[in-house]
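Reviewer 2 asked us to include a model.

Predict the structure of this chain.
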Amino acid sequence: MSSNSCSQGSKNWRDNVFENISTGKNEQLYFRQFLDNHDFSAHTIKALIFDIRKFALYFTTVNNEPFDCVRITVADITSFKRYLREEKHQAVATVNRAIVSIRRYLEWLVGQGRLEANPGKVVKELKRQQLVPKGLGRSQVRKLLREIDLRNDIRSKAIFSMFLQTGCRVSDLVQIELQDLMIGDRSGSVVFRNGKGSKERQVPLTLECRKALQEYLSVRPPVNSQKFFIGERGALTDVGVRSLCNKYSCLCGFKIHPHLLRHSFALQFLRDSNNDLIALAQILGHENLNSTKIYCQKSSSDLADVVERLGY
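Predicted model (structure tokens):
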């Protein structure tokens, strides 16, 4: 019953992108066809809907006319970019994603013969300084694991062990099925079958992680589900994992979230592997080493320490 309601809600959401927005003829139909003609993930669909709706609202407000893609100009997109950054003070990544979403949709309309050219092609994204990802320090990881042990929270120990010792994404974790885990006394691995871009990868499991998973398996509820991690109402969800992170954030006194744990693994892996980028990229599921290289950058404090030790 719950899944049907969610599915219906998602369908209505897709069909009401331009709700309460004045548009030209068939704009809703075109955008729905754009979504249907691509194999977008649920996350990408949500981002596209949010970005296009935001742009449509801006367009109708500043131009005082219905939103019609054939009426979009380079100036419209450029001023929208400036509005998001300078007036709304949105993050560079958020602004750039909106520009990419608009460009992507308009390019599809060109391919469909509904536009002669894509005005978004010449609008450049904002430049941003690449920052070193932050991770938990060793003392913070020890405190997190200690709080888990004090509560004998077997499931949480298995979940956080997976994050900290495989670098998986939250989407990877909630999709793990019983058949995806191979746990032996001397070795083990997990197969993440639905990674980013629908890529599959196999990641080895440490002894500590295997022990945590075996312990959870011994108390795992006998439910009719192949998903490995079980929540209160069936398979554990993304929301359930984030709720768990929030719980331990309060207990530990510092912020914990799934991607922070992924960063923690990556940074620690490089420290322990003499900066083996290729191995890390394979484990994290990165196709491009440039995505992995960011973990090799030094933080400002690290650079300061190095300079302070400089001597002649």
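Residues 42-63 form the longest helix (22 residues). The longest strand covers residues 188-192. We have added this to the supplementary material.
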